[in-house]
Design goal:
Two copies of one chain form a homodimer. The first copy, chain A, is α/β, with parallel strands linked by helices. Chain A is 43% helix and 17% strand. Chain A is built from twelve helices and twelve strands. In chain A, strand 6, helix 9 and strand 7 form a beta-alpha-beta unit. The first copy, chain A, is elongated and about 90 Å long. The interface between A and B is large, with 50 and 49 residues. Chain A binds a DNA duplex through helix 2 and helix 4.
DNA sequence: CTGAAAGCGCTTACAG
DNA sequence: CTGAAAGCGCTTACAG
């Protein structure tokens, strides 16, 4: 069963491929092609169940209507939801997605980027794991339109969509105080060079009433549970009585730890960046700093497509969205 | 900044494009091309940072090393994890993914399938929302290799990977009895024509000690919370004392309902298909029927690539994996 | 109003 | 051991 091509339609109608192509691309009127001929072409295309070959088209036109997306881990609900938002927006504008996971692995991310360029994506949306903005230089050299999401790089002239992490973290710490916490600690995650993480740490430090009491636990991203268990143990018997978690994975690990100990968090109050379903279902409920995930996705796609479709007259845009404190 | 092509390498080396192509595709030795020439080609390719154009290649060869994936909703943790598993396996075999969400919408799913065929995917992995196996006929006509996952169609000769839903549901119901439940009801989800759902209902019915007490609540998939709230209300004061949930979304809605009522489930015992993190973190913990998600993903990719790479000598394979009862 | 031709970047028989 | 040529399916000047 061979695929139907332009040629098949042209031959069965006795017209040229060019004409068929024009009509099917909606340029029939513009080029003054006979209305009836146009109708015949469209009918025949439908009859033969013609499906244009996007790769041939892409090869010719230099665009493929495909956007590459790289996130650390799509099974993490934050990135899963982000990808969903990106997909919806992209789809509505006629673009498909190629999604890949970097697993916070710099080498894998590099390879993925090359892979995607290979596949002639029109642009890339990237939640990067790079420790260094220079890694992105290759992309600029390759002239691939790029939008960074979630994680940005200071001093890099690239479109981006992120949230105001510093303020978000400050709000979180303030809320802990409001709940009667005296000395909050921060559970952060390595690697801390990720912008969203370092900014949240800054926010925690800013929000602290007594800077001398600043205390950070750096949990390794690839072994969160154990890191959290150790940190919790170390916290026992100290005066620290509140925890600000830089992301939902850490908060979940705390829940897990305390659920197996069957004494819940005891005197500890907890607040977390990222609002996830579970925070509303456990007891006590957990307050959080919610990110506008849909907006992040929509903005990223909007920015990228803007950039794609009118390459020149576009200044770098770095959008920073507000977070929302959910008090529980 | 123009992309580097085969021609650029060929010209700068004074050889033909054909030779460069052969060398770069590892056919140099096979075709007896001078070792030194091969080395020069490879060096030059690296020096110019040559990236082959996969679309040109795809156009010529008829394969694109791209797999299409359609799931109902990637932000659902079950499908998120499944996609992750699929991506890892596919990636390790040199394939990329184009992932799309159908949102249980038959029309959208049809359009997505056409879209993906447009893009010349080599094959498709599909968790279909179709109510009818005939919808898939177009795919067979188009000769696109297909593997169904999670949801299958009886009497359809197509590769598939699913789990033994009937047995899984039976195990769940039996466990409820073991916990002292006298009359379990089933919270199912519409549309019930989805194979995984209908099979779980069958399992529930099979497992019932007293068939006359069979009771099903059919929760609409696009308004789960309200459906669950109503069902719970209706259950009050009846003799039903256990709930088997056909999937995690329903169980989450029950958690949500009971958390806002602050009386937890009271006398009700709950068990759910799909094992999700949260079941281990709430109190009381929730038992569940876990699916081997990674295995489903791996098997699907394996089956598909098998099919792609040796089209003929391949009999239809419908793999059914075991579930695992997690007692909590 | 319509067609013939070139060319996007690649691979693969074929020829020598 | 290597090259010239055809062709995958499309679009776009160009010509008439």
């Amino acid at each position: 069963m061979k695929k139907v091509s332009l040629k098949d339609i042209a031959e069965s109608l006795g017209v040229s491929k060019a004409l068929v192509s024009l009509v099917l691309n909606g340029k029939g009127d513009e080029r003054g092609i006979n209305k009836q001929t146009q109708e015949r072409v469209r009918l025949k295309a439908k009859e033969l169940n013609y499906i244009p070959n996007q790769y041939a088209r892409g090869l010719r036109v230099g665009r493929t209507n495909t956007i590459g997306v790289i996130v650390p881990d799509i099974s993490n609900v934050f990135y899963g939801t982000l990808c969903k938002a990106i997909e919806q927006e992209a789809y509505s504008k006629g673009y498909n997605l190629i999604i890949s996971n970097s697993y916070e692995d710099v080498q894998k991310e590099k390879k993925l980027i090359t892979d995607l360029i290979n596949r002639n994506i029109d642009g890339l949306i990237l939640a990067s794991s790079f420790d260094n903005k220079n890694e992105l230089q290759g992309l600029k050299d390759n002239d691939v339109p790029l939008v960074l999401v979630d994680r940005v790089f200071e001093g890099l002239d690239v479109d981006s969509v992120s949230v105001s992490n510093v303020e978000g973290a400050e709000k979180a710490v303030n809320f802990l105080y409001k709940q009667g916490v005296k000395s909050p600690v921060c559970f952060t995650i390595s690697p801390v060079y990720i912008s969203s993480i370092s900014e949240r740490i800054t926010g925690y430090l800013n929000g602290l009433e007594n800077k001398k009491m600043a205390k950070l636990f750096q949990i390794p991203h690839d072994n969160i549970q154990e890191g959290v268990n150790l940190a919790l143990k170390e916290l026992k018997g100290t005066e620290y009585d509140g925890i600000f978690c830089v992301n939902n994975s850490i908060a979940k690990a705390i829940l897990k730890a305390s659920s197996s100990q069957n004494d819940q968090f005891g005197r500890l109050k907890i607040i977390s960046f990222d609002d996830i379903e579970i925070f509303d279902l456990v007891k006590p409920k957990i307050s959080s700093v919610a990110q506008p995930i849909e907006k992040i996705g929509n903005n990223a796609v909007e920015l990228l497509i803007d950039r794609l479709e009118k390459k020149d007259a576009h200044v770098i845009e770095q959008r920073v969205l507000e977070t929302n404190l959910i008090e529980r």
